[in-house]
Amino acid sequence: MRTNIIRHENMMASYDVVNGWTVVEADGEVDAHTAPMIREGVLRLLDEGHRHFVLELGFVTFMDSMGLGVIVAITKRIREHEGSLRIASVSGRILRIFDLSGMRESYEIYPSAAEATQSAPSPGSLAHWPHPSG
């Protein structure tokens, strides 16, 4: 069952738990005004005990550098809690932001949330972040 964590005129975010993953779906614009709300929402979930996240970006219509910065900030916090983070459903336009920033190789990016949640999370998967393991 999806639970709303953010409601704003330009963006909404909700989450659901699937196979041990907390799937946070953002819908709308992720920019200087809304990105801090996503950060606070994820930090609240961390405080509630969630550790393994999939950030689903398929409904994100716009994301700027502030949005990417918030993803980096929440990744650091998730890492501190020995959690994991996967990115899912990224449009070509949003993926380009990851490419231009050099961050694409730092994240596990999946075509869909279903694929991202197919395998159960493994604690400490961010141990080598921001450099890819392998």
Mean pLDDT: 90
Bulk shape: globular
Number of strands: 6
Major sheet: arrangement of strands: 1-2-3-4-5-6
User: Would you tell me the structural class of the helices and strands?
Assistant: alpha/beta
Question: What is the CATH first-level class name?
Answer: Alpha Beta
**Low-confidence runs (pLDDT<50, min 5 residues)?**
none
**Helix-residue proportion:** 25-40%
Report on this structure.
- Belongs to the anti-sigma-factor antagonist family.
- By secondary structure, the chain is of the alpha/beta class.
- It has one domain: STAS domain (Transcription Regulator spoIIAA), CATH 3.30.750.24.
- The protein contains 4 helices and 6 strands.
- Strands 1-2-3-4-5-6 form a 6-stranded mixed beta sheet.
- α1 packs parallel to α2.
- The N and C termini lie far apart (35 Å).
